[in-house]
Amino acid sequence: MVSVPTVLVDEATVRSALAEVADPEIPAISIVDLGVVERVQVGDDAIHVELLPTFVGCPALDAIRQAVEARLAEFGRVVKVEFGYRVPWTTDRITERGRRSLTASGFAPPGDDTCPFCGSGNVATDNLFGPTQCRSVRYCRSCRQPFEAIKLL
Amino acid sequence: MTNAAAELVPATRNALSLLLLAMADDEFVIGFSDSEWTGIAPMLEEDVAMSSLAQDELGHAQALYRLLAEVVDDGRDADAIAYDRPVEGYYHARLLDHPRGDWAASICRRYLYDTADAVRLEALADSSFAPLRELVAKIRREERYHEMHMTAWLDRLASAGGEPRERLLAALDRLAPDAATVLAPLPNELSLVMAGIIDATGDELDARWRAKIGRVFERLNLSMVLPVADPLTARTNHSDAFRWLHGEFTAVRSAQPGATW
User: Fold this and answer.
1) B225 to chain A, minimum CA–CA distance in Å?
2) Is the CB of residue B203 less than 8 Å from the CB of residue B39?
3) What are the distances in angstroms from CA A138 to CA A104, A114, A144, B133, B148?
4) Three-state secondary structure call for residue B15
5) What is the value of pTM for the model shown?
6) What interface predicted TM-score (ipTM) does this complex get?
7) Beta-carbon separation of B59 and A133 below 8 A
8) Strands of A37-42's sheet, edge to edge?
9) Chain A contact for B148, CB < 8 A?
10) B167 CA: distance to closest CA in chain A (Å)
């Protein structure tokens, strides 16, 4: 592989590379659009990335760490990924583009009470809890589709 | 404001490790105990909900054990603290020593626990120990869902009359003597209050908890006879039910000590 000249690696380069890392539980959204990436610091020898867990016990953290390390490997520096609670992750951190990606893949974005399939507001909460910690289960009474919503946190 | 445990005087640091151990063991034991409902809850929705609640609690326990490992700094990591202690070394509240029981018992216990835990977390919201304050801010956002769900279930069982209410009353009778153990005063807790790590002593937290659940109990016509916990026994002398649970949750780790899974 051709190594990238080190002078060209800056925070923006690293952030755009991270925008290509998909969330392992909902691959339609990147970890950048999910709001998980907090600080990025690029040094001569190392790249430090601070990530915020969506849920404290999220089992996908190791997978995210590995995906970040793999994506940033081309920059030829040691990649140090750290998860922390210095800043709490909240659903407000999901970007507009992220919200659109969620809807397009059948998930109601946090705080959106409409059906991602038909747009109807006639929906019921079937279960506050769902198949992963960050999701709850809803049912659309108009198009009769069950769907999942991202919990408002 | 304190960022590292090394900045604390030894007495405060010891008291902090007991607080963290109590919180972590509480979350670990109720999380593990309630995970027994996975696959056998009364309905599919609750199977999913109880499993998700349990997963949240085990996540909180893991983060608390990690913080505890930093505070204690004796070479043990979070897993070693979580799994490598004998039954007598666990420091969870006696409320969590009860067996899972029937659905009403699990709901009743979880309601009593979640409400007490919420009071404890609120008392740590402005903690001078930054790592704990930050973690608590995160945990509280998740626990809100637990409390909401348990309050809805308590309401459902208490208001249903007939067998659901009878089972709930029977569970409350069994759990009542240990209900207040979660917030029982901890050793040297005054040093934590004076250092601004927690905003009140166990007695004050107990009063806040009673005020909080009193309104719900009154509305649902449930007995508020919940004896004040004895701090000396609130987190010791664990039951046979816990002894069994301990065997379950240590089985995999003790099968191959030191193995990486």
Assistant:
1) 31
2) no
3) 16, 10, 10, 33, 17
4) helix
5) 0.94
6) 0.89
7) yes
8) A37-42, A46-51, A78-83
9) yes
10) 24
Give the side-chain half-sphere CA count within 13 A for B209. Answer: 29
Report the DSSP beta bridge partners of residue A125. A138
CB count within 10 Å of CB B189 equals 21
H-type alpha helices, chain A: 11-18, 61-72, 96-104
CB B43 within 8 A of CB B103: no
Q: Of B23, B35, B52, B135, which to mutate for an interface test with A (greatest number of A Cβ within 10 Å)?
A: B52
B89 within 8 A of B238, measured Cβ to Cβ = no
> In DSSP terms, which residues pair with B191 in a beta bridge?
none
Write the pLDDT tens digit of every residue in B136-169.
999 999 999 999 999 999 999 999 999 999 999 9
**Distance from C-alpha of A46 to C-alpha of A79, rounded to nearest angstrom:** 6
* pLDDT score recorded for residue B2: 87
Give the type of residue at B125. A
Rounded distance between C-alpha atoms, residue B18 and residue B81, angstroms: 13
Residue pair A24/A64 in contact (Cβ under 8 Å)? The answer is yes
Q: Please tell me the predicted confidence (pLDDT) of residue A2.
A: 56
Rounded distance, CA A138 to CA B163, Å? Answer: 29
Q: Flag whether residue B55 sits within 8 Å of chain A, measured between CB atoms.
A: yes
CA nearest B104: which of B53, B142, B156, B54? B156
Interface check B141 vs A, CB under 8 A: yes
**In chain B, which residue ranges form alpha helices assigned H by DSSP?**
10-34, 44-72, 78-83, 103-122, 130-160, 162-175, 189-194, 202-219, 240-255
A125 to chain B, any CB pair closer than 8 A? The answer is no
A89 and B138 within 8 Å at the Cβ level: the answer is: yes
Cβ of B141 within 8 Å of Cβ of A86? The answer is no
In angstroms, rounded to a whole number, what is the distance separating the alpha carbons of residues B147 and B115?
7
Residues of chain B with pLDDT below 50 are none
Q: What is the enclosing helix (H) or strand (E) of A125?
A: strand A123-127
pLDDT tens digits for range A33-91: 999 999 999 999 999 999 999 999 999 999 999 999 999 999 999 999 999 999 999 99
Burial, A10: exposed, middle or buried (Cβ in 10 Å; 0-12, 13-18, 19+)? exposed
